[in-house]
Amino acid sequence: MKVTVVGAGAVGASCAEYIAIKNFASEVVLLDIKEGFAEGKAMDLMQTASLNGFDTKITGITNDYSATANSDICVITSGIPRKPGMTREELIGINAGIVKTVSSSLIEHSPNTIIIVVSNPMDTMTYLVHKTTGLPKHRIIGMGGALDSARFKYRLAEALGAPISDVDGMVIGGHSDTGMVPLTRLATRNSVLVSEFLSEDRLNQVKEDTKVGGATLTKLLGTSAWYAPGAAVSGLVQAIACNQKKMFPCSVLLEGEYGLNDICIGAPVILGRNGIEKIVEIELSDAEKAHMQESSEGVRKTNGLLAL
Ligand SMILES: NC(=O)C1=CN([C@@H]2O[C@H](COP(=O)(O)OP(=O)(O)OC[C@H]3O[C@@H](n4cnc5c(N)ncnc54)[C@H](O)[C@@H]3O)[C@@H](O)[C@H]2O)C=CC1
Ligand SMILES: O=C([O-])CC(=O)C(=O)O
């Protein structure tokens, strides 16, 4: 199993590290445009192999896509991150050009690859890859919901005073400060609905804290987060590589599901060796449907800025 990660910055390196530590891939290629940067990150990570006990071979390369040839999975993290006070959508001007060039170079050398898009604004970047590469929809996956759901569980556990392992929940919709749809109605603590334990007001607070999870960290760090994003990507890569058939909310091209068409947005999917093996449609409440609709309008507005 060969995995390429483009962008050896904060998220790309964290993602490569988690993939290696989980020890399921034979090879990870880190590629960056900055001379020597990916080589340095790869060497540093390889020097953790004996300490962390993994056999994955990590190599770094400066912008030479021949090194990525025949990758089973390619992750795109190249592009700029936001600074405090910015939205993800403001990154489109620079990141769209980067994602378009990178995805085309990757596919040239790995025509059968599955692509995971991380660069922001992620739903629109996923749509861009869909529109410009011609890859089948099950091989284009946007990572956002897996991270947002992890943050949702963190906030739920905080509100409940419970360990995170007691909690389950999912966030669908757009990966943006206003577009996320945390499904508080369905969240559970050991299969008991969290509404049994938390007031509506507290649940609304959890929902709002979850939606601004990325902005909160950006304000604290001065740039956006990387540990949980890297871990979330590694979870998707592992589900595909190990054919786990796990369910994650991912940005996926919808063709009628959730009443939406011609848009990439977060919905639950089953991930296996073929990429997206199924889009799972769950029954939403009227309020959730309205929130999903509103979320899709936000994503479409950003998609409208693409020069397609
Ligand atoms: N979808 C999600 O849930 C998340 C998305 N992100 C997004 O991921 C992206 C990366 O974030 P960070 O790693 O924190 O940024 P970073 O600045 O640490 O790393 C980005 C790397 O991309 C490289 N790069 C730029 N243009 C390139 C090109 N054409 N080819 C190859 N490499 C190129 C840069 O040299 C840099 O090393 C940002 O757009 C950020 O908003 C970040 C966290 C979560
Ligand atoms: O907040 C950001 O800009 C990066 C990101 O998507 C996240 O951490 O959720």
TrEMBL record:
It catalyses: (S)-malate + NAD(+) = oxaloacetate + NADH + H(+). Substrate binds at R82, R88, N120, R151. Its EC number is 1.1.1.37. Keywords: NAD, Oxidoreductase, Tricarboxylic acid cycle. Belongs to the LDH/MDH superfamily. MDH type 3 family. Pfam families: Ldh_1_C, Ldh_1_N. The keyword Nucleus does not apply. It comes from the Bacteria. It is an enzyme of class 1 (oxidoreductase). This is Malate dehydrogenase. Catalyzes the reversible oxidation of malate to oxaloacetate. One of its GO terms (molecular function) is L-lactate dehydrogenase (NAD+) activity. The lineage of its organism: Bacteria, Pseudomonadati, Bacteroidota, Flavobacteriia, Flavobacteriales. The keyword NAD applies. NAD(+) binds at G7, A8, G9, A10, V11, G12, D32, N95, V118, S119, N120. GO terms for biological process: lactate metabolic process; tricarboxylic acid cycle. Residues 147-298 form the Lactate/malate dehydrogenase C-terminal domain. Residues 1-142 form the Lactate/malate dehydrogenase N-terminal domain. SUPFAM superfamilies: LDH C-terminal domain-like, NAD(P)-binding Rossmann-fold domains.
